């Protein structure tokens, strides 16, 4: 399935793996790229030397294109941005901010720049400053979210910019992929389904929690202070939402979640940790390899699109 995105990135299949903190490291990124999609290393708040090491490890495992997701709020963002350029990474996606100050450096190094956007205004701005494509991410996604749904955001962004648009948020099977194509997207970015991939280092407890999730298990914390995060309900979210309702200050809420994502992903504490996952979790029922996930999504989508 060839699109402007597959040609731009030199990949076979228009599926990009989300740059999820703690989950998207070299094992997952290399497996997705080897399966024909675009794997991403999620730099999150990792120091530059850790990201450089991950890049080397992906290169050892596959010769296919891969990328790095740079979280612009990270204290190491400047150093990580330089590592991306120095190591000849083909693609960078960005989140939690505006990557304009790195654009010239990345462009000079031949890096394709794909910012994640949650509004038409930011999509237009990114195109103006030289972005090669944008990921239009709806609020159905896991982790940090915007305020518009994928169904409404993607076609508006498609109409607003001339660069390719990648749809994200609430996409986890062939039906979601086909719907995204109908909305005008030329690829999709998928996070939650890759969390439960066999190559994912997420704890088995984390994977099992996603697989067992029902349609009503997704909650959003942090709405009151402007930093909404979608995760699966547990004791931590109940405590957080209770404090939030009582008007607790941001600092008190922050203490409750400090290190909680690592606790869930690495330690398997899905009671007190943050189990970030999108609303699509209710549709995920099994653990598969990245190759199986990608092939199943595209097989289903092609049948639907032909129909």
Alpha-beta content class: alpha/beta
* Count of DSSP strands: 11
Secondary structure: helix percent: 40-55%
Beta fraction: 5-15%
Name the overall outline.
globular
Largest sheet: 8 strands, parallel
Number of helices: 14
In words, what does this structure look like?
The chain is α/β, with parallel strands linked by helices and 307 residues long. Helix content is 43%, strand content 15%. It has 14 helices and 11 strands. The strands form 2 sheets. Strands 1-9-8-6-5-4-3-2 form an 8-stranded parallel sheet. Strands 7-11-10 form a 3-stranded antiparallel sheet, with helices on one face. Helix 4 links the parallel strand 3 and strand 4 (91-95). Helix 8 packs across helix 14 (290-306). The longest helix has 17 residues, at 290-306. 51% of the residues are buried.
Main traits of this protein?
307 residues; alpha/beta; 8-stranded parallel sheet; 14 helices; 43% helix; 15% strand
Concise account of the structure shown:
The chain has helices at 4-9, 26-34, 48-61, 77-86, 100-108, 120-128, 150-160, 174-182, 192-195, 204-211, 235-245, 250-257, 260-265, 290-306; strands at 15-17, 39-42, 66-71, 91-95, 112-117, 134-137, 143-144, 165-168, 187-190, 218-221, 229-232.
Write the SSE topology.
Blueprint: H1 4-9, E1 15-17, H2 26-34, E2 39-42, H3 48-61, E3 66-71, H4 77-86, E4 91-95, H5 100-108, E5 112-117, H6 120-128, E6 134-137, E7 143-144, H7 150-160, E8 165-168, H8 174-182, E9 187-190, H9 192-195, H10 204-211, E10 218-221, E11 229-232, H11 235-245, H12 250-257, H13 260-265, H14 290-306
Parallel strand pairs: 1-9, 2-3, 3-4, 4-5, 5-6, 6-8, 8-9
Antiparallel strand pairs: 7-11, 10-11
Helix pairs in contact: 2-3, 3-4, 4-5, 8-14
């Amino acid at each position: 399935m060839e699109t402007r995105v597959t040609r731009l990135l030199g990949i076979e299949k228009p599926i990009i793996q989300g740059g999820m903190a703690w989950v998207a490291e070299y094992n997952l990124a290399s497996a997705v790229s080897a399966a024909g999609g675009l794997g991403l290393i999620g730099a999150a708040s990792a120091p530059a030397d850790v990201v450089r090491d991950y890049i080397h490890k992906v290169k050892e495992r596959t010769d296919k294109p891969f990328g790095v997701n740079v979280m612009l709020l990270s204290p190491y963002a400047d150093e990580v941005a330089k590592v991306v350029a120095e190591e000849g990474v083909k693609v960078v996606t960005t989140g939690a901010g505006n990557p304009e100050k790195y654009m010239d450096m990345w462009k000079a190094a031949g890096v394709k720049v794909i910012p994640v956007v949650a509004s038409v205004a930011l999509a237009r701005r990114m195109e103006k400053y030289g972005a090669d494509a944008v990921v239009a991410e709806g609020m159905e996604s896991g982790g940090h979210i915007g305020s518009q749904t994928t169904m409404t955001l993607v076609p508006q962004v498609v109409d607003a910019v001339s660069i390719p648009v990648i749809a994200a948020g609430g996409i986890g099977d062939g039906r979601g992929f086909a719907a995204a194509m109908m909305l005008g997207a030329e690829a999709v970015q998928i996070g939650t389904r890759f969390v439960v991939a066999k190559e994912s280092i997420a704890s088995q407890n984390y994977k099992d929690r996603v697989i067992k999730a029902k349609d009503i298990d997704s909650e959003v914390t942090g709405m009151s202070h402007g930093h909404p995060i979608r995760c699966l309900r547990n004791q931590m979210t109940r405590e957080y939402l209770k404090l939030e309702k009582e008007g607790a200050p941001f600092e008190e809420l922050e203490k409750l979640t400090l290190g909680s994502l690592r606790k869930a992903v690495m330690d398997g504490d899905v009671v007190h940790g943050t189990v970030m996952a999108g609303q699509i979790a209710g549709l995920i029922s099994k653990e598969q390899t990245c190759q199986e996930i990608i092939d199943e999504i595209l097989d289903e989508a092609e049948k639907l699109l032909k129909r």
